[in-house]
Amino acid sequence: MKCTVCRGPAVIDVRRHNANFCAEHFAKHCREQVGRAIHQFDMVHPGERVLVAVSGGKDSLALWDILLDLGYHADGFYIGLGIGEYSDESGSYARAFAERRGATLVEADLPGDFGFDVPTGSLAARRAPCSACGLSKRHLFDRAAIDGGYDVVATGHNLDDEAAVLFGNVLRWSTDYLGRQHPVLPEGHGFPRKVKPLVRLGEREMAAYCVIRGIDYIVEECPMAAGNRHLGYKEVLNEVEAQSPGTKNAFYFGFLERASHLFTPEAEAEQLELRPCERCGAPTPNDVCAFCMLVERAARR
Amino acid sequence: MAAVKVTLRNPRREVDIAGPIRVHALVERLDLNRESVLVIRNDELVPGDVELVDDDEVEIRPVISGGST
To answer: Which CATH number does the domain housing residue B33 bear?
Structure first.
């Protein structure tokens, strides 16, 4: 197998592009795809400060690495979620990367700062663990960005993540979520801008990028995520992709080009109903935001 | 016993597969989807057309992760 660019020995095939790459040209391909996504969706402007949501996994560390290589002012933000050894290990990968790149890592700790961990919080709120985790992370990312004076929060959602979420939202016709599924959510109504620069790259490409760049990341799956719906959707989509390369890309970008706009009015109407949480000031449709309710319920246990 | 030593993850386990065998065939033999894994030898990616021989040690690393979005 030869590199499509230089005809040297290839180390990976990317079937949806009908291309093979050597290590050097694969890393270049990944940087180019991130650059194209940032440009295509107007994600980050010159001179802006970016806060990268870092989990210690492949996607967020690869994203941070690429943004730094592209010359962006990108700091990392890691949240200790209190998921036993998994959190200890993922935090150590995030810190090791920051040290190696000489980058700034800002940290928060759910148990230390708010008195509960994800397993406790999910039981207290009667939410699925991934729901309590996602709610906490979104709240703390927003807060860290606003408090730290960052212009934009960048997350490591890749093409597989977005295609799987879209698949789930379409299966259930969750029109409110469909209206918010875009690579850029603009700032406003108390939220920082949020961007997903990896939407043009697949999950396999991100893992390969980390191997090629020598980036150590947590390979083990989060123990709380086992059996969740999105993992199942990804498996289904990969079965289709193996038979018909490019399907995930066509599904997601076809939605953005042809259907996304049909659902945005509903999402925009929801934004107009937001007001500051009476406890923390975060935007919420209720008197008290979902995160403050989670903290309160966890404290009662 | 001479064989290709294969380490799988999530959960971590090891299996021996008789060589020689190409990487694509190995992935198929283990009933895995090529879109969902990488094959790594000595910290380097091994493309699908490479033939593995007995005593090669490879890791098959899953690439799917997912949780909250």
So the answer is: 3.10.20.30
Domains in chain A, please, with CATH?
44-300 (3.40.50.620)
Question: Is B68 a member of any domain?
Answer: no
Interface check for A16 against chain B (CB to CB < 8 A): the answer is no
At A193-230, the pLDDT tens digits run: 999 999 999 999 999 999 999 999 999 888 888 778 88
Residue-wise pLDDT for A138-196, tens only, equals 999 999 999 999 999 999 999 999 999 999 999 999 999 999 999 999 998 889 999 99
Residue at B56 is within a domain: yes
Q: Looking at beta carbons, which residues of chain A come within 8 Å of B58?
A: none
- Please tell me the pTM assigned to this model: 0.95
Chain B closest-CA separation from residue A279 CA (Å): 25
Nearest-CB residue to B69 (from A203, A222, A230): A230
B67 and A224 in contact by Cβ < 8 A?
A: yes
Domain coverage including residue B16: 4-62
Q: Is residue B25 part of a domain?
A: yes
Distances (CA, A) of A274 to A97, A181, A268, A269, A292: 37, 19, 10, 9, 15
Which tens digits make up the pLDDT trace of A73-118?
999 999 999 999 999 999 999 999 999 999 999 999 999 999 999 9
